[in-house]
Amino acid sequence: MGWPDMEEVMLKRDFAKGPQLSAEKEAEAQRLAETLAATTQEDLLQITRLLMSKPDHELLGKTEFEVRDLVHQLGARAIETAVNQRKKGGTKGRA
């Protein structure tokens, strides 16, 4: 038995949609997205300002790593926000 064909795997999963959620979990996801949209605006501006400050020939290489670091910070903020929202009773279940 070999490895699955990557094209087949990619077609089976719709990355844009993400996992299917119950109505309750979808409502929680929408609330979290609204919170993150407000709290990450400055992070997104920092990323876009970095990109706009670079000429085309400097977008790859060092700039990629700078953007990656900023995206990781944004992801960490998203996780922190989700945990805090759950602690405040924003969701039911384990945090």
Report on this model:
This protein is mostly helical and 95 residues long. It has a domain of 64 residues. It has four helices and no strands. The longest helix is centred in the last third of the chain and has 26 residues. It starts with 5 loop residues before the first helix and ends in an 8-residue tail after the last helix.
Quick synopsis:
The chain is mainly α and 95 residues long.
Give the tags.
mainly alpha, 95 residues, 4 helices, 66% helix
In percent terms, what proportion of residues is strand?
A: under 5%
The general outline is flat
Low-pLDDT stretches are: none
Mean pLDDT: 83
- Secondary-structure-based class equals mainly alpha
Helix and strand element order: HHHH
In oligomeric terms, what are we looking at?
single chain
According to DSSP, the number of beta strands is 0
Gyration radius from CA atoms, angstroms: 18 Å
Number of helices: 4
Write the layout of secondary structure elements.
Elements: H1 6-12, H2 23-39, H3 41-53, H4 62-87
